[in-house]
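EI: anyone free to look at a 70-residue chain?
SC: sure, send it
EI:
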Amino acid sequence: MSQENMALHERANAAINAGAFTDELAAERLAPDYSIENAVTAVTDKTYYGAEGVREWVRDIFEGMDEDSR
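SC: here you go
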């Protein structure tokens, strides 16, 4: 992985951990038709779309954890 891709990956992880995954960052990192599809055995069994989907997925994943979890 290139240094540029590593930097973008680290920035995205930091934003997710801070609850600050912005539309700007999504435009840099996500394909226009990006989606996350959780398996039925995961925390949720739904599909999340785009930047708002990432934010919703993070909320759903961290909802059952301690507020300081990352």
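EI: The beta strands are 35-37, 47-49.
SC: 👍
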